[in-house]
Amino acid sequence: MSPKYIRDLPGLGEKSEQSLALVGITDVEQLRSCGAVMAFYRLQQLAAAEGRAKPSLNFLYALVGGLSNRSWLAVAQSEREQLLMELEGISEMERMFQTDSE
Hints:
single chain; mainly alpha; DNA polymerase, domain 1; 5 helices
């Protein structure tokens, strides 16, 4: 049975759960639905809007690892480039939509 609470995922805890709640992600199902990369992107955007430090890439790796029951270190070693490209793709799409709407 899959955990319901984000804090119960491997490598994540209460602080991770609290951070994700700031962007409307309050349980594992919502995190899976949103996806680790989009959740991380939303946290980056919130931090930038509030003038706070952006979350570390290690948090992205921990999100992916938590959802796939792996260590964030294993994710960082095996999927780093793919995750960074996906994150950049989301950023680029947002820039394109902002340019189109202006």
